[in-house]
Amino acid sequence: MQTSDGTSPGLPGAANLDEVAILGVLSDHKLITPAQKQEVIDLHNETGTPPGQILIRKRILNEKALYKFICKDLGMNPDKPYGTRSFTIAGLTISRFKTSGDFYGIFPMAHGRIAVTLSDVSGKGLEAGILAILLANLLREGIQMQNIVPNAIMKRINLASWNFFGADQFATFVVMVLDLYSGTVEYCAAGSPPLLVYRHRDQYVEEVDQRNIPVGIYDDFQFKGNRLNLEKGDMLLAYTDGAFEARGISGDMYGVPRLKHALMRFKDRKLSRLLSGLKGDMRRFSFFRGLADDTSYVAIVRHRKR
Question: Looking at the domain assignment, is residue 69 inside a domain?
Fold first, then answer.
């Protein structure tokens, strides 16, 4: 049953809670049929089960089709770097299986700002894809907002994840907003590994940790944001846990110290080659055991000579 404004009584309108819009996006892009969309709504109203759980349990979505839609149509996990006169932003994802639970995105915004995101979703597959759609939808809504801040984005992602999946689903997220004029990066990291910042002037790699829990655990958690500044020659690296959890032949973990060492070794390479170098170093270390998890890197570098 629908109300006079076209929404379902058990699901708030898309203008109020972003997770509801996901069903419309999935239907509009023919990833689910209108009948399947209505089936999810009816089951939610009858049982109170979150819509995301219904989609996954009933296997309504095709994982490969969803992944293709996210990468091709939404532009997540782009192959090519994003470059400006002063900055280059690039990412790299290595999937353990055919589809990944890691997604990164680069979203140009108004007033010389760029949002950069990285997520790692528990359960992988369909859950990761649905949260990637949610994130892209949120950022595209706010693309003209001058004062959008990462912890506000994280709060909305957390609430939408909670309502769409319930407490069974969680994800680590990093949301960064780069100001191209000042070099300031506002960021909010939820349950993710510490950010690494290479400081060109002092020739060292700084660890920046943010004490937030992953999204989807508590619906009212107050995420804290912070900011840092990238000087000329500096680089910021975000990554998922697969980048340091890989294990060598003797069982020892690759670890963040090795990742920092590799970053120092490859710091003078072009960004895409630097990321390939990090990948190669980790893969050589874990050659006999294989990947522990999906692995992703996303980096922002401020050029030295401009």
Answer: no
**pLDDT category, 201, cuts 50, 70, 90?**
very high
pLDDT of residue 216: 84
Six-digit token string for 174: 């990093």
- Please, is 49 exposed, middle or buried when counting C-beta atoms within 10 Å of its C-beta (0-12, 13-18, 19+)? middle
54 shares its domain with 81: no
Look at residue 8 in the predicted model and tell me its pLDDT: 34
Strand ranges of the sheet holding 113-121, from the earlier edge strand across to the other edge: 102-108, 113-121, 171-179, 184-190, 226-229
Of 11, 81, 38, 16, whose CA–CA distance to 272 is shortest? 81
Helix (H, G, I), strand (E, B) or coil at 19: helix
Q: Is residue 121 part of a domain?
A: yes
Residues 6+ apart with CB under 8 A from 161: 19, 131, 134, 169, 170, 171, 215, 216
The CATH number assigned to the domain holding 256 equals 3.60.40.10
Bridge partners of 268, per DSSP, are none
**3-class SS at 140?**
helix
Band (pLDDT 50/70/90 cuts) for residue 83 is very high
Residues spanned by the domain of 285: 76-302
Contact 282, 256 (CB under 8 A): no
Other C-beta atoms closer than 10 Å to the C-beta of 168 total 13
- Give how many domains the chain has, as a whole number: 2
Taking the C-alpha atoms of residue 128 and residue 114, their distance in angstroms, rounded to an integer, is 22
Same domain, 186 and 221: yes
